[in-house]
Amino acid sequence: MNLSLEDLGAAGPYFFTKDLQAKPQGHMLKNPAYGKALRQIAQQGVSAFYEAILPRIWWM
Length: 60
Fold this sequence. Notes:
Layout: H1 11-15, H2 32-44, H3 46-58
């Protein structure tokens, strides 16, 4: 089976290189959207999760 990075969905580029090798141990994984969500929750409280973040996930 020949897979491409796109076949792996959003997680593909996060965990694998362009030649479908696992990123090396110690590689820093960056997820700006997750960081933004955590900052929003820290600033606005748990209501930011239930009223802003979670509804966006459900309706994607």
